[in-house]
Amino acid sequence: MSLRSILPSWKIQREWLRLKQQVSQVEWLFFGAMRRASYDRNRHKLVSVTEGNQPLCPDVAVILIFQPKGILPSLIEELTHFTTNGISPVVISNCPLSVADRGLLQAHCHLVIERPNFGYDFGGYREGILVLSERGAQIRNLFVKNDSIWFPVSNDCTLLDRALESKSDIYGIYLNETPKQAHRAHLQSYFYRFSPRLVNDPIFLDYWRNILLTDNKFMVIRQCEMKLTEAFRAKGFSIEPLYRMSDMQTALKALSNAELEDVLHYQIQVDTRSIHSVGGLMGHSGEPGWREKVEALIDQGKVGKYFLIAHPLALIQNLHCPILKKDRQPMYRLQRAEISRAGMAMLLPDVVRSEIMTWDAA
Questions:
Q1: Among 224, 243, 262, residue at a domain's last position
Q2: Tens of pLDDT along 34-72?
Q3: Looking at the DSSP assignment, which residues form a beta bridge with residue 324?
């Protein structure tokens, strides 16, 4: 009997991918520190810093971008949103900027930093933090985010206010939770707000100086994103997310039966494996006990498990999520199509809506 006849093909592919990812880490685990040291020795040659027109405020946002085809209008809207809220943007571009793009960013930023795409997002985050430290910037709250998301996606977004009002040391949008392994719970890395207590503790700068820099994207996720939250929590710093899985479950359960039918049809498209648990409930919303069965699947994490690809009715309509993912993987394309189909695009700011409606044709 062959392995293929015992295990589904998707499980074999998953385990093969996992093995390849683990093997790919070996080189960086041995030589990562040396490559970071080599990069740091040459930073003065590799990194350029351009003064912007915006003053340095006590609250600062380090914003990592990678837009080699030109600056998106939504980025300018985002920078304006930060400055309107009294937060100084510092943009780090992980690719060279044209003269025109650099000038455009200068008008909306305190600093524009250009560097090689070494270390992906965390390499860019690190660069911004090191440059600010080297310039003696006195920072109160520090926002750190990347351009993998559209933000803000509503005209009355309150995320920045909520982040500044929070008493936590690290504030994020969503906490990935693993009930059986609490130490692995982590805030997703596209948005952080670090408190004055943390930013001004030597631990903070030491963390960023010594963080792994790697061109292995899997390792950036495993060694940087997934470990940052616990690294600071273990030292006594507090964590607060805007959303947890329980919030998504509540948002889904608040939908009508007809809306839940839409969610089930969407679920089997964005997560094809869910058809085994969800498929039998589709088209039966009028039957006794149907809703209880759907809500049980929600509680089990079989519907709406992955926050950023959740159905727009839950994510945008009920949770008023301030971000949407730009990723072009099939599940995110399906989400954007569903935003349009459900007539929810009109809830978005004009610039964001325009980009989303043409994003997958690019």
A1: 243
A2: 889 999 999 999 999 999 999 999 999 999 999 999 999
A3: 150
